[in-house]
Amino acid sequence: MLGLVYDGKLSLREVPRPIRPAGEALVKVLMSGFCRTDFELTQGYHGFSGVLGHEFVGRVEEADDHSLIGRRVVGEINVGCGRCDQCRKFDARHCPSRTAIGILGRPGCFADYLVLPEANLHLVPDQVPNATAVFTEPLAAMVEMPDQVHIRPTSRALVVGDGRIGLLAAQVLRLTGAEVHLVGRHEDKLDIVRHVGVITHQREGFEEKGFDVVVEASGSVPGLSTALDAIKPRGLIFVKSTHIKPVLLDMTRVVVNEVTLVGSRCGPFAPALALLSRGLIEVTPLITRVFSFREAEQAFDFAWQKGVIKVLMQHEE
Amino acid sequence: MLGLVYDGKLSLREVPRPIRPAGEALVKVLMSGFCRTDFELTQGYHGFSGVLGHEFVGRVEEADDHSLIGRRVVGEINVGCGRCDQCRKFDARHCPSRTAIGILGRPGCFADYLVLPEANLHLVPDQVPNATAVFTEPLAAMVEMPDQVHIRPTSRALVVGDGRIGLLAAQVLRLTGAEVHLVGRHEDKLDIVRHVGVITHQREGFEEKGFDVVVEASGSVPGLSTALDAIKPRGLIFVKSTHIKPVLLDMTRVVVNEVTLVGSRCGPFAPALALLSRGLIEVTPLITRVFSFREAEQAFDFAWQKGVIKVLMQHEE
After folding, report:
1. Is B23 left (phi over 0), alpha (psi -120 to 50) or beta?
2. Which residue in A89, A145, A249 has the most chain B C-beta atoms within 10 A of its own C-beta, making it the best mutation to test that interface?
3. CATH topology of domain A139-263
4. pTM of the full predicted structure?
5. Which of A187, B179, B182, B258 has the greatest number of CB atoms lying within 10 Å of its CB?
6. Chain B residues touching A250 at Cβ < 8 A
7. Where do you find CATH 3.40.50.720 in chain B?
8. What is the ipTM score, two decimals?
9. A260 with B238: CB under 8 angstroms?
10. CATH for the stretch B2-135+283-314
11. A 57-116 near B (Cβ less than 8 A)
């Protein structure tokens, strides 16, 4: 089968079709999406080598549970050891020996097929098209925030950054009833969430302060500084951006203002898929372009260009 | 009266006795204590100039509320504007226009007298000696932690640092029923808390992991790295140390392990004083030396020497 492989350089090439172990499903990939992490992996993050990709919708071709066969699914990306303290608390996302498709010790979804434990799969309701369902993984990472911390309808929240993460984060937070602001640089991106009840601001000259909750989703070090400027005393900053290098942080401001920083990564698929299925999150305007999987190399280069929000790949049925 | 003044250099000298405004009390200082912040202020922190000191026990000499006169008191150090959102929520500690004795826009307690709003004062029970009551302020800052976050009896907690802050932090946390560990470099300091139920470790070769809660109380940047090594996924790190410069933080570990960092500063006096009064916190072994206030300059130099824990000054009655 074909796979988009990174092993020091990136190429779409023939790779062996994965062999399905017991308890896992063989999934034909129907659609996949690019995430910033894919790019970071090609910059040395995690020392990854293999088939990239972790955002997908697919159809089950083989499984122990025959009721899954032929069904459309999305899949949680982390696979735990099943035996450690974290796994016993059903938190494979933090298993110290976990693998994660396309990120850590497990081939990804930029391929014709992948295998994943059946327990990781979620059935996609018929009314949710592939190009919507493929957002389940990044949306789940945003749903992680209200799952970690109680966000109140009486809160004022600010999202820093108008990229993929910021545009989804603002949409999730607005469902809490909180007054949600987003600050970014691109009018066309701000427009997307302005239409669904988010108050938007241009980064240049932005000076609003006193937010109860701030989401740092800019992927940049200045974004963290903007977050510290905008947060009120005893406020809470979600940190969504990973950085390859350590970042400089004004810890004295964190201590003196008793700010809480909450690292936030992957999240729960079921509520994310439910939100998509109920039409509560706008994802279509985030899609900049859909490539064919056969154009995976060009798609990869395109995905990180300025102004691009989300790039998807249509795999052959 | 005499005051220990920092104005670019440090000196004990004659300064005007403060004039009591309406609503404030004139307090004769009986005993005072040194805090690392006093040292940092002489290194340029906050650009402070004036009488230093914020840890004290005193006796009220003048007050609007006559029932206070002659009573022994400790005093909350922050004075809010009384009108802002924070002050309306009784949180003067985070009032943006606050003053703080000996730190921010208000003369401190390294003097014969100070003035402070009557609302800031707490009566010291007769059975609590001055050399114990003077620990109310630093202890309150430790009591702030269980006031900010629910610490469970089922938690494993680690305190990084065996200085003043660490030795008090470990004692407060152990009252929650949590299994409390402290890692430090000085056997004599570790001894103090080992006798009251804290599990102690030498820093050299320390590799324990999987703590639910870590307190960074070392005042050093490597301390933060030790905290990140020791914390379990989804764990919580209290950050107690201020740093004059921004610190390098491995934010990717914070995000990937979904660690929460909680900045933690001043705390509530009433429960701290209650703990001292009930004999639940050992403070006497922390006192390295008591100077006379007339030796304030020597006391100041002594307080930051290696191996010193806490230095107090006895003022004239």
Report:
1. left
2. A249
3. Rossmann fold (3.40.50)
4. 0.92
5. B182
6. 246
7. 139-263
8. 0.89
9. no
10. 3.90.180.10
11. 85-86, 91, 94
